[in-house]
Amino acid sequence: MAGVVEAKLAELGLTLPDVVPPLASYQPAVQSGVYVYTSGQLPMVDGKLAVTGKVGAEVTADEAKELAKTCALNALAAVKSVAGDLDRIARVVKVVGFVASASDFTGQPAVINGASELLGAVLGDKGVHARSAVGVAVLPLDAPVEVEVQVELAGA
């Protein structure tokens, strides 16, 4: 039976995906004490990037915002893989978003809002977090966006 968080995802028309397999030598998420740290999550859907390129060039800011939402969904899947149940999330502590940006693109915060807004919609007040949104030259596989999440668990 799905918990409250997964029921909220379903209400939003979203399904928790399978955990994206690592592309190199790392784990998708690790737990240390009451915290779960995810590795950077790319906007993978069914094992593939739907879009590649730089935001502000080949990828629009609106497309990238949707991709950041996909990254956050993948991060929740990674959290569940180690926590066992998303209902154990006491709060999202920190989100770090990376945006592969054209040299003149400065809208990184608006792009990473896709991830922040998803976490807020799914987790309510528990989804409110500190955040960084950083522009970078290139990301793995030429992904436009990458997001990592740190959550605190209850009952750890």
Structure description:
This protein has 156 residues and is an alpha+beta fold. The chain contains three helices and seven strands. It has helices at residues 4-11, 61-83, 108-123; strands at residues 29-32, 35-38, 44-45, 48-49, 89-100, 130-136, 145-153. Strands 1-2-7-5-6 form a five-stranded mixed beta sheet, covered by helices on one side. A two-stranded antiparallel ribbon has the order 3-4. It is globular and about 45 Å long. The model has no long low-confidence stretch (mean pLDDT 95).
Low-pLDDT runs of 5+ residues are: none
Structural classification:
alpha+beta
N-to-C series of helices and strands:
HEEEEHEHEE
Individual helix count: 3
C-alpha Rg (nearest Å): 15 Å
Question: Biggest β-sheet: count, sense, barrel?
Answer: 5 strands, mixed
Distance between the termini: 21 Å
Blueprint of the fold:
Layout: H1 4-11, E1 29-32, E2 35-38, E3 44-45, E4 48-49, H2 61-83, E5 89-100, H3 108-123, E6 130-136, E7 145-153
What structural keywords apply?
single chain; 156 residues; five-stranded mixed sheet; two-stranded antiparallel ribbon; 30% helix
Quick rundown:
The protein is an alpha+beta fold. Helix content is 30%, strand content 26%.
